[in-house]
Design a protein that fits this description.
Radius of gyration: 16 Å
Structural class: alpha/beta
CATH class: Alpha Beta
Oligomer: single chain
CATH superfamily: Metal-dependent hydrolases
Largest sheet: 4 strands, parallel
Helix content: 40-55%
CATH topology: TIM Barrel
Number of helices: 6
Number of strands: 6
Mean pLDDT: 87
Strand order of the largest sheet: 1-4-5-6
Distance between the termini: 31 Å
Number of domains: 1
């Protein structure tokens, strides 16, 4: 209850500056005894959607660490104009998971509500490696969408560029 009050007070204080910021948050990396686990309850997702809807002027951007919650977050992005999704984070950073997340997002969420790359890397070399992995997996996903007829050969590079060029401050 207290945490909810603090969150609401903080967001209310941010509202006057909503045109200047994007409120970025990470979701679904829950502490465990020795590491973190990727877990997220449906109740939490519902509470998050309600909170975001109460602050329509604030732009929210989520770094999601949960494969299973991706579809719910995509649906929320479609329903909430001020919510966008960013990259693959931590527990999603495996090639098969990245492809699934990218496929779902490209199917469900407009490109202007996606940021293709986010890095929590601790050094430049790891940032480069993560970017390379993302680009490789995105090329696989886009090639499959061209093969299925969902995109043309001209569409795929344009989608890739749109995700890569998307700025955190634009909606």
């Amino acid at each position: 209850m207290y945490a909810s009050y603090v969150n609401e007070a903080y967001l209310k204080a941010l509202e006057p500056h909503a045109d200047q910021i994007v409120f970025q948050f990470s979701l679904a990396a829950e502490p465990l005894p020795f590491e973190t686990g990727s877990r997220l309850s449906q109740r939490t997702l519902g509470q998050l959607a309600e909170m975001i809807s109460r602050y329509p002027k604030i732009r929210f951007q989520c770094h999601l660490a949960s494969r299973h919650a991706n579809q719910s977050m995509c649906t929320m992005c479609r329903e909430l104009p001020n919510l966008s999704l960013c990259g693959c984070w931590w527990h999603n950073f495996f090639p098969s998971v990245m492809r699934q997340v990218m496929e779902e997002r490209l199917d469900m969420v407009p490109v202007n509500k996606q940021v293709g790359f986010f890095s929590d890397a601790y050094c430049l070399e790891w940032t480069y490696a993560k970017a390379k992995m993302i680009l490789n997996q995105l090329s696989v996903v886009l090639a499959a969408k061209v093969e299925y007829g969902q995109y043309t050969r001209n569409d795929a590079p344009a989608v890739a560029r749109a995700c890569a060029r998307r700025r955190l401050t634009s909606q």
